[in-house]
């Protein structure tokens, strides 16, 4: 909540809500590094531009599920894996489960967090 308040310059009115990449970036320590992926061609330039000033953040235009396979385990042998798919397709829910299972096989000491949408069941049936 404090991160969201900071983004809104301490105002009481919520004007901006940070997505998962910005929230994660605000929590990085100087010795930490992050890899952010975005598949959509129109969204990736925005992601890259928003994080170009962060020396410890790398952005890649790729499928995040593919990057999990390519980058785990990290050289540090510890870390947080944040999975935040678009959930545009119903298969995304299964892909998340598979990604956690496969990721754990490669990186059992990792911490896995899933950004999960809160929606009404009726909305998801549409």
Main traits of this protein?
6 helices, two-stranded parallel ribbon
Summarize it.
The protein contains 6 helices and 4 strands, in the order H-H-E-H-E-H-E-H-E-H. It has helices at residues 2-7, 20-27, 44-50, 64-71, 91-106, 121-124; strands at 34-37, 57-60, 80-83, 111-114.
List the helices and strands and how they pair.
Layout: H1 2-7, H2 20-27, E1 34-37, H3 44-50, E2 57-60, H4 64-71, E3 80-83, H5 91-106, E4 111-114, H6 121-124
Parallel strand pairs: 1-2, 3-4
Q: Explain this structure to me?
A:
By secondary structure, the protein is an alpha/beta fold. The chain has one domain (28-124). It has helices at residues 2-7, 20-27, 44-50, 64-71, 91-106, 121-124, and strands at 34-37, 57-60, 80-83, 111-114. Strand 1, helix 3 and strand 2 (57-60) form a beta-alpha-beta unit. It is globular, with a radius of gyration of 16 Å. The two termini are 31 Å apart. The mean pLDDT is 88.
Helix amount: 25-40%
Topology order in helix (H) and strand (E) letters? HHEHEHEHEH
- Tell me what portion of residues adopts beta-strand conformation: 5-15%
- Count of distinct strands: 4
Q: Outline, from the CA principal axes?
A: globular
Rounded average pLDDT: 88
Gap between N and C termini: 31 Å
> Which quaternary structure do these chains form?
single chain
Query: Into how many domains do the coordinates divide?
Result: 1
């Amino acid at each position: 909540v404090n991160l969201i308040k900071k983004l809104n310059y301490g105002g009481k009115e919520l004007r901006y809500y940070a997505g998962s990449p910005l929230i994660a970036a605000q929590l990085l320590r100087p010795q930490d590094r992050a890899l952010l992926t975005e598949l959509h061609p129109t969204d990736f330039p925005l992601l890259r531009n928003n994080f170009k000033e962060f020396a410890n953040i790398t952005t890649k235009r790729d499928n995040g599920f593919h990057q999990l396979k390519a980058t785990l385990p990290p050289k540090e042998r510890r870390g947080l894996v944040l999975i935040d798919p678009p959930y545009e397709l119903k298969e995304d829910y299964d892909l998340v489960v598979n990604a956690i299972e496969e990721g754990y096989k490669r990186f059992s000491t990792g911490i896995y967090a899933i950004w999960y949408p809160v929606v009404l069941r009726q909305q998801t049936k549409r």
